[in-house]
Amino acid sequence: MPKYLLLKHYRGGPEAHHPFPPMDQWDPADLEAHIAFQVHVGELLRENGEFVDAQALAPTRTWVRYGGPDSAPVTTDGPLPETSDLIAGYFMIDVDSVERALELAAYVSSEPGPGGEPLYEWIDVREVLSEIPAADLA
Fold first, then answer.
1. 55, 49, 59, 47: which is closest to 12 by C-alpha?
2. 3 - beta bridge partners?
3. Which residues contact 121 (CB under 8 A, 6 or more apart)?
4. Cα(124)–Cα(130) distance, rounded to whole angstroms?
5. Tens digits of per-residue pLDDT, 61-103?
6. Is 4 exposed, middle or buried (0-12, 13-18, 19+ CB in 10 A)?
7. Which of 29, 41, 59, 137 is packed most tightly, with the most Cβ within 10 A?
8. Would you state the CATH architecture of domain 3-130?
9. CB 55: neighbour CB atoms within 10 A?
10. Is the separation of the CB atoms in 137 and 44 below 8 Å?
């Protein structure tokens, strides 16, 4: 069965469906409902045998690159373009088809936001490659 990442972003996607404020500005009850939904999705995936992993990621980040043979790694936290739109968290799923991955992504997108209204968040669906496609080797 193919594996997919359902990627959640802090901001991003083609366009925002609703202009909700950042999560750190939400009412605590709305945040609690949002997290409860994420737990529910994980339980649903486990019950269906589709769960591989799920994690939330902190908004802070450090970019690292090789510094050279006699140098320490070079790090920076910016400025870098659109870094705040990077991944907020993910679900790794193992499903029978891309159609099922899209169905689950749409369900994740219905997660509650402020006032319990669905976020309609864009979810980035990415297949995990089990091998490098031959076309990419050329």
1. 59
2. 94, 128
3. 8, 9, 13, 17, 108, 109, 111
4. 19
5. 777 888 889 988 888 876 665 545 667 889 999 999 999 999 9
6. buried
7. 41
8. 2-Layer Sandwich (3.30)
9. 10
10. no
